[in-house]
Amino acid sequence: MSRTSSLSEGIYPGNLLPDIKNLVNESGTKINLSDLRGQKVLVNFWAAYDAYSHKDNVLLSHLIESKQYPVRMVSVSFDKSESVYERTLVMDKIDTRYQFLAKGDASSELYNRYQLERGFKNYLIDENGVIVAMNLTPNDLGRLLNEN
User: Which domains does the chain have, with CATH numbers?
Assistant: First the structure.
C-alpha cells in the first residue's frame, strides 16, 4: 500500500488536499489540480476585494517567480466580477496561466469545502498532493522551500 492511499482527504496539514476540478484560466485552458501531481503546488484562494489575500497573491506569485522556486502556484479568485478580476491580474503583473476565477456552483462548492467563510487560505502541497503547510506568508514559503 502506498503512503498516500492511507491518508484521508481534508483541509489540514497531513491530509490529501481534495482535488479541484475544471479550473479554466483567461485563455480558456482547463486543468484539474490533480493534473499537477509530481510537483509541489501552492494553492492560493483570494479575491481582489480582500486586501490581505490579494496582497499575498501578488507577493507569493512574484516571490516564486523571482527566486525560481520549484513550486507551481495555482490561484483561485472568488471575485464576483470577471472584469474586476481581469483588471486586477493586469495591474498585478501576474502570469495568468495558473490564475483562475471560481464561478457559479464551483465557487460556492469550493468556498464551502475549504471553509473560506473563515478567511481565504493557501496550501502548500507536496508532489503527492499532501498538505505540507497552510496559510503561508511569503517569508514562511521562502523558509520552507529553502529548507528542502
Answer: 15-147 (3.40.30.10)
Q: pTM of the entire structure?
A: 0.92
Element (H, E) at 45: strand 40-46
Quick one: which H or E segment has residue 133? strand 131-134
CA angle in degrees (0–180, nearest 5) for 85-90-92: 90
Helices (H), 48-103: 51-67, 82-92
- Kindly indicate the confidence band of residue 7, based on its pLDDT and cuts at 50, 70 and 90: confident
Which sign does the torsion angle of CA 113, 116, 118, 121 carry? positive
Secondary structure of residue 75 in the 3-state scheme? strand
Contact 125, 41 (CB under 8 A): yes
First CA to last CA distance, the chain: 26
